[in-house]
Amino acid sequence: MSKSGAVPAHMKRNVFLLATCQALFNTSTGVLLAIAALVGYKLAVDKSVATLPQAIQWLSTAAFAIPVAIMMRRVGRRVGFSVSAMFGIAGALVAALAIFQHSYWLFVCATLLFGGFTAASQHYRFAAAEVSSPKFRGKAISLVIGGGVVAAFAGPEISKWTYNLAGSWMDRDSFSAVVAFICGPGVLSLSDRVPDQPYQYAATFLVLAMIPVLLIIVVRFVKFPQVREEEFSVPPRALGQILVQPSFIVAVMCAVIGWGIMVLMMTATPIAMKAQFGHHEVDAMFVVQWHMVGMFAPSFITGSLIARFGLLNVLLAGLLLSACSAIVGALGGSISHFWLANVLVGMGWNFLFVGGTALLTYTYRPSERAKAQGINDFLVFGAVAIFSGSSGWIQTVLGWNTVCYLVLPFITAVFISVCWLKLYPSAVPAGLRNSDSVGEES
């Protein structure tokens, strides 16, 4: 790269710090992906609602999306990210309390708090775009999302290291006395009511409460644009004008389906592996670990792929990968089948999420940023809540093959919409057309 085209050092530093923040957040997400369905399955009397806590988390994320976007605009990214981290701390502590008390509905309340944490943490990718030049924007977004590859190993490893640790801690008089003081003396006799590892995953959430603290420290070193410096020469359009843009619709569809089918398959995977096919929890954590590698590792090249092959072509590739994951998953129930299906759906999610985010940034003006990003996340995570909440029922009642077959019509619909945008480049935003990254046919 020529000197004139080099990326400034301060820009690289900001992107590195935001990638670190993303890694810390996704470590928490990795733990939740690995164990939330299993905790719900253990606490719930009706096993078909085992994935409801995860659905509540995504519903809460959708509910917080617009308020968080407004908060970010008014008080700045640093304060917004720090406040959201407090929700992560509170959610982890309430989840641990729920396990010690063996309370399913208290665990649901914990996931409500995690929703506030998740909603704000989705803005790291937008923050990356804001601290980067237009030419570096796609790569900055992909690198920040790529920070989650650290979480692919850290999250499941934390789960494996801690999932039975609370039981041994309860054998210590000092620890059990503190827990009994906080949760009530009934926790000491929990093993009489729940003989099979009653405190499983409680220690996991206690460890999880420490991660947002590190995030608060790191985010303080990021140099965000000052809120008072945001003066817009062009007034914002009405929300309806933004929503009806073909590129906005396609960007949201890619994010909705990319997230939706990933969550549907991933949420059902631990339950299917354990309850339907008899695999061990550790095997499920192994699959989740490699699923997260599939989600985040491609980010180191996704930006370059967009620059070389075009944004729309990368979106189409993501949809094809997602379709392949469903087909592989339906072919069998071995660990290898689950492993490959989850790696492929993770890679598909990455192409759709990075590509969809990059496409979205071309559909709004700076003065429209907060409401466009907020409504995007509201629509995405509202849909994700539906996918996540239904996955437990579909898996328990209809089985793993139905989960896999069900995603194919959604993938087909989005594939057609991206092809339509590709065939009618006049519907693509001018800024994106001028960047030569659409991937039009010559």
Could you walk me through the main structural features you see in this protein, from its secondary elements to its overall organization?
The chain is globular and about 65 Å long. The protein has a single domain (9-163, 200-222, 239-430), classed as MFS general substrate transporter like domains (Growth Hormone, Chain: A, Up-down Bundle). It is 77% helix and 0% strand. It has helices spanning 9-43, 52-75, 77-101, 104-121, 124-130, 134-146, 148-162, 165-169, 173-183, 190-193, 202-208, 211-219, 239-243, 246-276, 281-296, 299-309, 311-330, 335-360, 369-398, 400-423, 430-434. Helix 1 packs antiparallel against helix 12 (211-219) and helix 6 (134-146) packs antiparallel against helix 18 (335-360). The protein has 21 helices and no strands. It is mostly helical. The mean pLDDT is 82.
Write the layout of secondary structure elements.
Elements (H helix, E strand, L loop, with lengths): L8 H35 L8 H24 L1 H25 L2 H18 L2 H7 L3 H13 L1 H15 L2 H5 L3 H11 L6 H4 L8 H7 L2 H9 L19 H5 L2 H31 L4 H16 L2 H11 L1 H20 L4 H26 L8 H30 L1 H24 L6 H5 L8
Helix pairs in contact: 1-4, 1-5, 1-6, 1-7, 1-12, 1-14, 1-15, 2-3, 2-4, 2-19, 3-4, 3-11, 3-12, 5-6, 6-16, 6-18, 7-11, 7-15, 14-15, 14-17, 14-18, 14-19, 14-20, 15-18, 16-17, 16-18, 17-18, 17-20, 19-20
